[in-house]
Every structure is written in structure tokens, then in C-alpha cells.
Task: structure prediction
Amino acid sequence: MSKIIVANWKMNGSFDFIDSFFSNFTAPSKNQLIVCPPFPYLPLIKKKNVTVGAQNCSQHLSGAFTGEVAPTMLKDIGCDYVILGHSERRQYHHESNELIRAKSNTALDAGIIPIICVGESKEIRESGHHIETVLNQAKESIPTQSENFMLAYEPVWAIGTGLTASEDNIAEMHTALRQLLPTIPLLYGGSVNKENSQSIMSILNVDGVLVGGASLKPDDLMAIANF
Result:
């Protein structure tokens, strides 16, 4: 069964980096790879015959919203996906579940598939309320009508820390999410790398991975994507 690999480059990259990255890059033949660079590099990566996604979009289609990018604009340059609600957006930009839902609805109206992120903090995990918290995030963040989206579970304490949730932790959360969303692709993110990606994607109800730092290394991303 094919898997979905989403590469979140965050605020990294340059023209030279991208040319070097794809100079010897082999896209997976079996699995789906979606590369999500910063906004300015979307057209450049699209020219590499790679499926591209954005890392954010506005909940508005147009208007006096300085610094915002509408999903219709992303669609114009060949963008098919958008990451919404990443924990860094929730933490640093104070994005609420309600805002993420509004963005996902607008993205779908523009023909872009949202990849919606949910996850709990270390404190909530230790309190034992992690399932309840993440399910509530999902319920309040997903689109109102459509089922044409993906959901990525990223425990906040595992993002960029080198810590990875145990296979039992991942299986527990993905089982709960599968009961809530029977037909939606479920991804796992949080310190995914070429050493652990295969075992993570072998867990029941894990349909793919959302990769951060490791996706900036072409050999590592190829190893992960060619699982």
C-alpha cells in the first residue's frame, strides 16, 4: 500500500539549495511525495516535476490583508496542498482551531487540499488527557463539509527535539483518530528520520509521515519516500 510523505521545509532554502537538492533526486515511484517549501520557492520546485504544497494560507480570498497569501493565488502557481495548523503557527501566531477551520474551508473552495496538524504538549501528555485534547483539536479544526483533507498528528514535544513518540503512543492516537475520521489519510510527524520512518509507517492507521528537518537532506528524504 502506498504512503504519503510530506516534506515541511519550514523557513529554509534558497535558489542554489534547491538546484543542488534536486540535481540527483529521484522521486518515489510507489509513494506520494509532497514538498512544502517557503512561498517564494513554490514555482521553482513545481518545475522539478514535484508535487508542491504551501505551509500556510489566508482564510480570505482577497482584500486588504497585508502580508497574507490567498489559496487562490497558491492554486494559480500550481500548488495542490497546504499545511494548516502546524504547532509553530499555533504557538507563535496564536492560531486557533476556529481559524484553522476557516482556512481549511477557504483552501478547499480554491481547490487546494488541507493537511491539518494536531498534537498535544508534554504537559497534556503527562496529565493523561492527550487523546481528548487531540480529538477536540481535530473536531474543531477540520473543514465543515468536505472530507477531502489529511490530518497530521504531531505531538508538540516531539517536533524538532529529536524525541519520537513510541510506537504504542502513535498507534494509540492514530486508532482514536481513525475512529473519528474513518476515511481520512492520517500522517505522523515529530522527529521523523530515515532511521525510524519505516517502522512508523508500518504502524496500523499510519498512512504516511510529515517530515521536518530530515526533509532538507536529499538522501534522507529519498530514503524515507522510497519506503
User: Anything to note?
Assistant: The two ends are 10 Å apart (CA to CA).
